[in-house]
Design a protein that fits this description.
The protein is globular and about 65 Å long. The protein is mostly helical and 313 residues long. The chain is built from nine helices and no strands. The chain is 86% helix and 0% strand. The model has no long low-confidence stretch (mean pLDDT 81).
Length: 313
């Protein structure tokens, strides 16, 4: 049964990631028509900034929460299970708000000296709320992974990606947007709305699922100890993610400057980046879906076996 749970959950998550991967690919094709090559290039320069701050606020948290929740769930320690989630939500809310305010405050500096395109200003402002929502959603996703309810976050993720595509198409069509700045800004506004919708749905399902747990007596640990156990796992993963994402962000932002120095105009440089990052890289990373899904489910599976004192496979 344990073995079946692991492969079943991995299959569900792989299927979900496959569907969202297809949606992302379709999304890239749609954006290429709506934004144009230069718009896709500008979009591709802003996304690494978002990814970088997202890693700072929630890097490693899904893994850490899923591990801790799986352990307490299989020990039938429901009190510490939900207290771990509560403490993590409070911590990540405070931390993500601080990072969102930093990004908002330094957006002019980032646009002028790093991206070197002031048209990205509104987009950076729009992704500030998304950083908060994605951090909180990571906690809830880790919770569902830990208690082996993978289907819930998977369906919500598919719904969010699909609705984001529909919202962007409707807004662009209704407002008849043609200018690159407005179109890219609307795209990132839809991203924030999508992350908000995803968080609300995850939180509602979390509250609904929480009601169905019995509450056996257990000695509750202090919030400080629970948070320490989570950060002990997530912090090294976060540092690794920050370094990896930071290098990728730096290399991505360096491309347009190097192309301009070689004699290519800024708009043509953005167009080249749009073709490369917006379309080609999406296809290249598509096969990694299965590997990522299995690695996500491996940690809570190991934690489950430790709690039950059974063999891993």
């Amino acid at each position: 049964m344990i073995k079946d749970n692991f492969f079943r959950n991995s299959l569900i998550l792989t299927s979900s990631n496959f569907i969202t991967g297809v949606l992302k690919f379709l999304f890239a094709i749609i954006l290429s028509h709506k934004l144009g090559d230069a718009g896709i290039g500008l979009y591709s320069l802003i996304m690494p900034i978002y990814d970088f701050f997202a890693v700072i606020v929630c890097g490693g948290m899904i893994t850490a929460i899923s591990k801790e929740c799986s352990y307490y769930f299989n020990k039938n320690d429901i009190g510490n299970l939900h207290k771990s989630v509560k403490v993590s939500l409070v911590f990540d809310l405070i931390w993500s708000v601080i990072m969102a305010l930093i990004l908002f405050s330094f957006s002019p500096f980032i646009c002028k000296f790093i991206i070197k395109d002031m048209r990205a200003m509104y987009s950076l402002w729009f992704i500030c709320p998304a950083i908060i929502f994605v951090a909180l959603s990571a906690i809830l996703k880790g919770y569902f992974y830990g208690i082996s309810k993978v289907l819930t976050p998977s369906v919500i993720d598919i719904f969010e990606k699909a609705m984001r595509m529909i919202v962007i198409l409707l807004i662009i069509s209704i407002l008849n947007l043609k200018e690159t700045t407005k179109t890219v800004s609307v795209t990132y506004l839809a991203l924030s709305l999508g992350e908000l919708c995803s968080f609300i749905l995850l939180f509602l399902f979390y509250k609904y699922n929480k009601k169905h747990f019995s509450k056996p007596y257990s000695i509750l640990q202090s919030g400080r100890n629970l948070l320490y156990s989570i950060l002990k796992i997530s912090l090294p993963l976060c540092i690794n993610g920050v370094l990896t994402t930071g290098l990728f962000t730096a290399s991505t932002l360096m491309l347009p400057q190097r192309l301009v120095y070689s004699g290519i105009s800024h708009e043509n440089a953005l167009a080249l980046i749009g073709k490369f990052s917006g379309m080609s890289m999406t296809i290249i990373f598509f096969p990694f879906i299965a590997v990522t899904s299995m690695s996500t489910m491996l940690i809570p599976h190991i934690s489950e076996n430790i709690a039950k004192k059974t063999t891993f496979f």
